[in-house]
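Form 7-S
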Amino acid sequence: MSDSEASTTPALPRNEYTIGWVCALSTELTAATAMLDSEHELPSNPPGDKNVYTLGSIGKHNIVIACLPKGKQGTTSAAVVATQMLESFSSIKFGLMIGVGGGIPTKDHDIRLGDVVVSTPTSMFPGVVQLDLGKAIEGGGFERIGSLNNPPNILLAALQRLETRHEMKGSKIKKYVDQMIKKWTNLKQKYNRNDSMKDVLFASDDITKVIDREPRDGVKVHYGLIASGNKVIKDATLRDTINGNLNHHVLCVEMEAAGLMDNFPCLVIRGICDYADSYKNDDWQGFAAATAAAFAKELLSIIPASDVEQMESIKIIAGKIVEISEVVRKIDQHQERHARNDFLEWLTPVNYDAQHHEHLSKRSPDSGKWFLEHPNFQQFLKGKKKTLLCQGNPGAGKTVLTSAVIEHLQHWQPFHDASAGGKVSLAFVYFDFIRKESQRTIDIFASLIKQLVRDELPLPTAIEDLQNKYRTIPASSRSDKDIEEFSKALNHLISSKSTKTFIVIDALDECQDGDGFLKSIFTVLDNTEAKLFATTRPSTRVEKRFEGGLSLEISALTEDVENYIQARLPEFTVLSDENDDIPKELKIHAKNEIVTKISSAIDGM
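Output:
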């Protein structure tokens, strides 16, 4: 039958469709549609259902096929599609998740490209497990966070019967693929196996070494565990690690099945289109999609339609299905949060928050108010000048003033309308000669990135690329030659933000690599819209670097000193109000004398 002769039959009532077929890619949808014995006309969707369906039949089974939206692969999209399908076709009894996946050859399973893997309960595991692959891809361990329930018993019984039939008579996969190609001649080039398609397996410990395997004809079916997550795996070492950690039962990795979780009872069938390694490509995708669809057709051919009709429909749990998207969303956030936290710790274990709060605790409420209201500081906040350098002698209060600036920026709204830009992005560093081992230029750049990215989900691409390049190198082993890559990542991060970015540096004079750090940080300023606030002891070298920017001299103002002393005096128990041994008038006099004497001694520092 030629393509032009194909036709559809009238649609059946919705309650006569009993099998839901979900796929992720257009290639998989094509194979599924072409494998139907007949296609039915498509009625309009109920309100709120955004799926696009294909209706048809295989034998006496009436089937609903839905594909994930283009470019929306993953567990969440699969959950949404399944949810809407069940709401629109309430008589569906079980589901089939059919498409392509990455194969994991083992000593017990000689998996080849084009073979079929079927999710089957194995040992202590159900047919499909969901993994926190975000962690795994970062080079660490991974966490099993969910599972697809065991397939319905009617499917497990049919698998048992079909496996026996295959051993005795062989499978009908090739027959069904050939029939599909004959019926739909346009599919021949993409969905049929040809001599140009090479099946090459590389060693996981040496990606240049080809593993010798005996030639083998025909498609083989494998029954075992399928691992599902929201990350594409293109790493043979990671692939084998996943398999090893699940007792070598994993035969395939993919991205959608776990999104169906327990509320869409289904069987997962995957045609193997690659080996989940760095040689991943699409050459085998069409043929693998066809073999998976052909296996599904053969499986349905041995299940009596009357048995399916007698099953309890998924409608009885439809009320729970609406929860799938939210559950999966939380799982995705959980995965991303874990990955982000591990990444932040990998960037640098150094955290300046505790140091900041310690300095801030030493500041009296009105201390530094003069500075925050000073025209130069206001111009720095709102004008075009990108730097503000504040020089002052030791003891002038530069660090406490820096803590006041940080607190001000953390709450400052650059626009009257919050929706116009929101709060600023902020990163800060307190230089300290005691911590010099963790305050090299490369360490400071890692800290700036950490602070600017810690609230972002997902991580920006530039930051993920940085991690992929340096994941095996601990923070202590990074060197000056790595600064350029970290600087580029910081540039991309700042440029991608919709809010203003401020970098605050205290005590530049205590930076061990002053010239190198200043050169690197000013390169970032030149390439981005970031602004830099810095304090230092008087330094001609530093002052020259900040030439052309704003400046403000810091000195210990009598008002600030008095406010600070007044705030700390209650710590002296001898002068506290609870001490009745000293007359109140004398305590007041003593406090005033202390404030006056110390203020006079510090005046102008």
